[in-house]
Amino acid sequence: MNSRTLGADLNVSAIGLGCMGFSHAYGPPTEDDEAIQAIRTAFDMGYTMFDTAETYGTAEDPHHNEKLVGEALKDVRSQVQIVTKFGIRFDKTSKAVNKPLIPDARPETIRASVEGSLRRLQTDHIDLYFQHRVDPKVEPEAVAQVMADLIREGKITHWGISEVSEDYLRRAHRVCPVTAVQNRYSMMARWHESLFPVLEELNVGFVAFSPMANGLLTGAYGKGEQFDPKLDYRSAMPQFTQEAAKKNQELLYLLQGLAVQRNATPAQISLAWMLCKKPWIVPIPGSRKTERMQENAGAADIVLTNEEVAAIDQALSSIPMSAVFGGTEVVSRETK
């Protein structure tokens, strides 16, 4: 697979693998042996960037996903870039399937988190360490200073921020250069495009999570799709309702038509569209099936011209779409 550079010097595969779904949020977790084999198969396909987080886990093991990633990649560690995250915990008192997030970026919390992640990932350093959500009670300069210290100590080599505003990014970047932001981005969720000029100015990369709107843009989900209301976040996402299925027909027809023209799949067109917008965008689709990983990897070979991307953008701005899941609720740690 082709590679891309995030920030000044972090070289990664053009498409990364989001590993969360093996443990969390998309139904029952995958059996450990099967998940580890799938992650290794992705490496064999050319994926080098693997995204996880300390909070991606199961009811029995809240840190399950990092352990899977660490075990799968331990003998190829020098050939991959491991991405993990700190700074949130779940509100366990909530009965919702998608439990609210409680941010905590206090320096002592970060220190405990990085040590735990290093141990579970079976590594001596993290290639890209993301602040999972902004903590309004901790100034960006304070977080950035901890990152600078961790880089100096060799525990991380690069850092980033997820779901970040321009002001927070600029303030943090002045203390310790940010390598990438990780934000939700897809044909249905384009609100972070306003941040692109700032990213170009600061030489900060963009890691796109949920690049296919939680799977909707693959075209694989039909009307009346049922998801486990206890284990699957999609059961509560607005793009998977009966009403949304009708409203999104034109969008899916657009994708299918583009896919036919390119002898590709809708998923590949969804990824190619963002890859061809900017050379510093790296999508991290999550899949547990190796055939889907292979399909997604193929998107890196599809080249759309600037004119084709602009035409797609224009179409996306004019056709009807349902609401799309925009992120998990964040609550204050003061009340939890």
From TrEMBL:
Q: Pfam families recorded for this chain?
A: Aldo_ket_red (PF00248)
> Which UniProt keywords are given for this protein, alphabetically ordered?
Oxidoreductase
Q: Which residues form the NADP-dependent oxidoreductase domain?
A: 15-315
**InterPro entries (UniProt xref):** Aldo-Keto_reductase, NAD(P)_OxRdtase_dom_sf, NADP_OxRdtase_dom
Instruction: Give the matching Gene3D superfamilies.
Output: NADP-dependent oxidoreductase domain (3.20.20.100)
Q: Which domain of life is it from?
A: Bacteria
Q: What is this protein called?
A: Aldo/keto reductase
Origin organism of this chain? Pseudoflavonifractor intestinihominis
What's the source species' lineage? Bacteria, Bacillati, Bacillota, Clostridia, Eubacteriales
